[in-house]
Amino acid sequence: MSASQDHPPVRTLISPARYAQGPGAIERLGELVAPVGRTPLVVADDTVWSFVGDAVARSFDAAGLPLTRDGFGVYATAAAVDSIADRVREVGADVVVGVGGGSVIDAVKAAGHLAGARWVSVPTVASTDAPCSALSVIYDEDGGFEEYRFFPHNPDLVLVDTRLVANAPVKFLVAGVGDALATWIEARAVARGDGTTMAGGAPTATGTALARLSWDILWEHALPAIDAVRDHLVTPSVEKVVEANTLLSGLGFESGGLAAAHAIHNGLTAASQTHGLTHGQKVNIGSVTQLVLEGAPVEEIRAFVEFTTRVGLPNTLTEIGLTPGDVDDLTRVAELATAEGETIHAMPFAVRVPDLVDALRSIEGFSRRVRADAGLPEPVPHRAH
């Protein structure tokens, strides 16, 4: 949403109608879905359904809800969205429930909007802030970024069972930390300029503050939470990090603003070398690069590289399958990241393709030096799959 010259953008905050989190929360799904709709369609892939299906069935039975479950593929593609929307109409569903990762949740939101149904997000991992938002990221069949789709409202319910999160592979929690760390870096950049947010207006102080709160929680609790999830434990640190990754980052990015980091992520999806990486891993490359573009204090960038290395996130091109010498590939990344409508244009200064290419190429040497000085491991090359 852009403002006219006569009417400056209003400040706005949007959020899910209800957020519920805790160990065993999946057992209450039916109870919390029932006020939203009485004829649900649940969408979950076979792997996810193998460990949540019984609990969902029990909760729906207790709430007097019928259970219809459809499977899901890999990416939230336009075709997947259309297919789910067709099924919503076919079964007469008034609410569609996405259970699993960010792709199925994004596909369900977009399908619910197309079919005129409400939607509910049930992430089984804390790997992105997608569950809370009123937008979906649509990809092509190979995982390349295609477009954002925006909706008139957020999910009616977001339910996170932290026991499921703790039992998932730790790489998903790490990815969520990478996605959420960008929230404050981007929100503060938007607040310095006159950019608009995904909520369709200027950033609110509340959205910006929630982005900062997410950052503060992660710096204090990410490492102990990651250790706990490696052992499939739910601790107070795990609860805080799940909330930071999912709710605080979701509210913070949507009502605080996105900037360069996520635009760089979108650009990186065009490089086949990065396929197989999580959303949060690519976003973290965007965060380091944004800090370089901003001319942030060197000690701040150094601390970020050290911390994200300890978390297990990439901060060099090597770790995402690229090198500083891949100038043609990095130029394509930069061209996509700076395309019209991309969030990089919310930065408080213009970012040109050559500037972005140089910033991307520079993070390799800087991060390697920081890691060596701190006695941290050298980067391990990523092999696309």
From TrEMBL:
<feature type="binding site">
    <location>
        <position position="129"/>
    </location>
    <ligand>
        <name>glycerol</name>
    </ligand>
</feature>
<keyword id="KW-0560">Oxidoreductase</keyword>
<keyword id="KW-0479">Metal-binding</keyword>
<feature type="binding site">
    <location>
        <position position="279"/>
    </location>
    <ligand>
        <name>glycerol</name>
    </ligand>
</feature>
<dbReference type="InterPro" id="IPR001670">
    <property type="entry name" value="ADH_Fe/GldA"/>
</dbReference>
<feature type="domain" description="Alcohol dehydrogenase iron-type/glycerol dehydrogenase GldA">
    <location>
        <begin position="16"/>
        <end position="162"/>
    </location>
</feature>
<feature type="binding site">
    <location>
        <position position="262"/>
    </location>
    <ligand>
        <name>glycerol</name>
    </ligand>
</feature>
<comment type="similarity">
    <text>Belongs to the iron-containing alcohol dehydrogenase family.</text>
</comment>
<dbReference type="InterPro" id="IPR016205">
    <property type="entry name" value="Glycerol_DH"/>
</dbReference>
<dbReference type="Pfam" id="PF00465">
    <property type="entry name" value="Fe-ADH"/>
</dbReference>
<dbReference type="GO" id="GO:0008888">
    <property type="term" value="F:glycerol dehydrogenase (NAD+) activity"/>
</dbReference>
<feature type="binding site">
    <location>
        <position position="45"/>
    </location>
    <ligand>
        <name>NAD(+)</name>
    </ligand>
</feature>
<comment type="pathway">
    <text>Polyol metabolism; glycerol fermentation; glycerone phosphate from glycerol (oxidative route): step 1/2.</text>
</comment>
<keyword id="KW-0862">Zinc</keyword>
<feature type="binding site">
    <location>
        <position position="139"/>
    </location>
    <ligand>
        <name>NAD(+)</name>
    </ligand>
</feature>
<dbReference type="InterPro" id="IPR018211">
    <property type="entry name" value="ADH_Fe_CS"/>
</dbReference>
<feature type="binding site">
    <location>
        <position position="179"/>
    </location>
    <ligand>
        <name>glycerol</name>
    </ligand>
</feature>
<feature type="binding site">
    <location>
        <begin position="102"/>
        <end position="106"/>
    </location>
    <ligand>
        <name>NAD(+)</name>
    </ligand>
</feature>
<protein>
    <recommendedName>
        <fullName>Glycerol dehydrogenase</fullName>
        <ecNumber>1.1.1.6</ecNumber>
    </recommendedName>
</protein>
<dbReference type="GO" id="GO:0046872">
    <property type="term" value="F:metal ion binding"/>
</dbReference>
<keyword id="KW-0520">NAD</keyword>
<feature type="binding site">
    <location>
        <position position="133"/>
    </location>
    <ligand>
        <name>NAD(+)</name>
    </ligand>
</feature>
<feature type="binding site">
    <location>
        <position position="135"/>
    </location>
    <ligand>
        <name>NAD(+)</name>
    </ligand>
</feature>
<feature type="binding site">
    <location>
        <begin position="124"/>
        <end position="127"/>
    </location>
    <ligand>
        <name>NAD(+)</name>
    </ligand>
</feature>
